Amino acid sequence: MTSGWVAVCAVALFALTGCQPAPQAPVFQATDITGAAFARDFRLTDHNGRVRTLADFRGKVVAIFFGYTHCPDVCPTTLSDFAAALKLLGAQEAGRVQVIFVTLDPQRDTPDILKQFVPAFDPSFLGMYTDPGTLKLLAKEYKVVYQKTSVKSADDYLMDHSAGTYIYDPKGHLRLLMPYGSGPDAIAHDLRMLLAAS
């Protein structure tokens, strides 16, 4: 085989490989924040009294939302939407998802209250808490803002707070920010994509 023929074959092979479609990046409904240098980890106590970190849930898609149990709308809606999304996934896939609700109101949200409130939406959901000082540092790491508002007394107030949900893939990498109000279909779509890619 002459060197000229080899060169022609090489060019033809290159042309063929160049025609192959490039792998498509996943198209999520949520905001793709893959590679973000924040929300890297947490250390919180769940409503059963067990200290947890992100590594405890390796192998699962993890959705973490910050709120409070006295919340009149955003928090119950978000938890309801995720519960409905898990039903759409079916038992097998839903078993590979962990939803975490972190209270921004440790003054009122005791472990007992979290234990009653959070699993009422889905028995697998975990409520988590920490002390006010650590919570401030964690909120900074997660770019979560919160403050008391409509204060009527020491135990009667509302809280303004960030309303998005962070979602990690089964390897523990932060991937998505799910906006409030996305709805069960969009949530299930993105959870399914992360599970399929693992």
Give the helices and strands, then pairings.
Blueprint: H1 3-18, E1 31-32, E2 43-46, E3 51-53, E4 61-67, H2 74-89, H3 91-94, E5 97-103, H4 111-117, E6 126-129, H5 132-141, E7 146-153, E8 156-161, E9 165-168, E10 174-178, H6 184-196
Parallel strand pairs: 4-5, 5-6
Antiparallel strand pairs: 1-10, 2-3, 2-6, 4-9, 7-8, 9-10
Give the SSE order as H and E letters.
HEEEEHHEHEHEEEEH
Strand content: 25-35%
Rounded to an integer in angstroms, the radius of gyration calculated over CA atoms is: 22 Å
Number of discrete helical segments: 6
Assembly annotation: single chain
Number of DSSP-assigned strands: 10
The biggest beta sheet is recorded as: 8 strands, mixed
By secondary-structure content and strand pairing, the structural class works out as alpha+beta
| Neighbour order of strands in the largest sheet | 1-10-9-4-5-6-2-3
Mean pLDDT across every amino acid position:
90
